[in-house]
Each structure stands twice: as structure tokens, then as C-alpha cells.
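Request: Have a read of the protein record below and say how the chain folds.
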Amino acid sequence: MTESAAQRALSASTLSLVVSCASIVPFLPPMVETTVASIPRTALLGIAIAVGMLLHWVFLGIAAHRLQRSVVGWLALAVLLFPIGGIAALILLGFFGDESAARPPAAAPGA
């Protein structure tokens, strides 16, 4: 796979994480009373959080696979330490992707 394919997966994972975290904000103390006062708003925000987290993890796994990294290890980091682990995984996978793109291709054996 090309590095741009991994970068697209990382971008989609980042966007999903931002949506999920933005959906968590209305449940913080200054806005929690107005958020939970409306059942549809609470339900929609809960669905947005769940879908955003799931998509973040799926795209993170796709990016790890495209960068030939351990999918299970990176997903464990993102799931167990959400959201900080997901942010760290995105940063590190982006760094590893840039690093492998900068490396010159290996010479063919016997050439």
C-alpha cells in the first residue's frame, strides 16, 4: 500500500476522534443540565460518541495495517487509554508513516 493510503486512514481516524470528543463536550459541567434535559439531544450525542469512537478505532486499525504495524497493539493503546491513547496512536503512526516514506527503497537482492 502507498503511504498516502495510510495517511487517508489516519486523517479519517482523526476526524472521527474529533467528532467523538466534540460530542462529549456537552456532557461537561457547564452544559450538562441543558444537554440531559432534552432526551433526543442526549440520545443523538450518545449515538455520535459511539459511532465516532468505533470509526476512530476502525480507521486506526486500517492505518496500522497499511503501515505494516501491529493492529492489535495500536488498537489496545487507543481503546484502553481513550482519548489520550488514540491521540498518541495517531501521532506515532503519522510519524512512522512519514519516516518510512522518507527512507529510500531497498535494493533488490542479487542486483
Notes: The chain is about 75% helix and 0% strand. The mean pLDDT is 90. The two ends are 24 Å apart (CA to CA).
